[in-house]
């Protein structure tokens, strides 16, 4: 009887080890997989984080990305978008949250220096993982906004009108879901993010 129980334990342990190994291999395969034509990781553009670090988008490959375009001096829509992003963070699956990056991209790179983005991150208690703030050149920002179907226009020296869209990308950098509007029901957005994060 003892031998049978020990044999069962060994079998279960072996099966779990194989399962863990498969997950690890799948994750590595995803990182080594060729970039598809629909991926944002094809963009060769350089971006700067709130910590002053220069990165390319492809350095984020292997994570589920949740992105929104804002500017830090905005007093109307952006605070609501930030609140929506914070609500999304609060509802991420605790076990797979490490596979998600929440990214705020500035549409006003002239004003939003890394120092400004850092101050904004600290003021909004978003100066830790999984939050990333990005800025680039005006040209790169316009190109990226077009990919996200985000329209924006300067309407005064300090104000922009802009679309209110939260975009979700799979680990390969492909756009898989968009939430449009402010303060909308985000159940479908959360479900999609958690589902994708579980696959990693």
Average pLDDT works out at 88
| SSE pattern | HEEEHEHEHEEEEH
Strand content is: 15-25%
From the alpha-carbon coordinates, what is the Rg to the nearest angstrom? 20 Å
Strand order of the largest sheet: 2-1-5-4-3-8-9
* Cα separation of the termini: 39 Å
Structural class: alpha+beta
Indicate the percent of residues in helices: 25-40%
Q: What is shown here, in short?
A:
This protein is of the alpha+beta class. It is built from 5 helices and 9 strands; from the N terminus they run αβββαβαβαββββα. Helix 2 (77-90) links the parallel strand 3 (64-70) and strand 4.
Question: What report would you give on this structure?
Answer:
The strands form two sheets. This protein has a seven-stranded mixed β-sheet, sandwiched between helices. Strands 6-7 form a two-stranded antiparallel ribbon. The chain is α+β, with helices and mostly antiparallel strands and 200 residues long. It contains five helices and nine strands; from the N terminus they run αβββαβαβαββββα.
């Amino acid at each position: 009887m003892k031998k049978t129980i020990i044999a069962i334990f060994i079998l279960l342990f072996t099966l779990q080890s194989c399962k863990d190994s498969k997950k690890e291999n799948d994750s590595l395969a995803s990182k080594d997989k060729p970039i598809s034509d629909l991926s944002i990781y094809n963009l060769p553009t350089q971006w700067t984080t709130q910590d002053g670090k220069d990165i390319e988008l492809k350095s984020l490959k292997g994570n589920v990305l949740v992105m929104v375009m804002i500017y830090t001096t905005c007093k109307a829509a952006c605070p609501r978008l930030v609140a929506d992003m914070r609500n999304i963070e609060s509802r991420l699956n605790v076990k797979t949250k490490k596979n998600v990056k929440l990214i705020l991209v500035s549409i006003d790179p002239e004003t939003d220096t890394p120092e400004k983005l850092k101050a904004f991150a600290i003021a909004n208690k978003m100066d830790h993982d999984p939050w990333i703030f990005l800025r680039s050149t005006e040209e790169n920002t316009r190109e990226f906004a077009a990919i996200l179907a985000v329209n924006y226009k300067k309407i005064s020296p300090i104000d922009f009108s802009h679309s209110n869209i939260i975009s979700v990308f799979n680990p390969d950098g492909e756009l898989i879901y968009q939430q449009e509007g402010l303060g909308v029901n985000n159940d479908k957005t959360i479900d999609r993010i958690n589902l994708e994060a579980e696959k990693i």
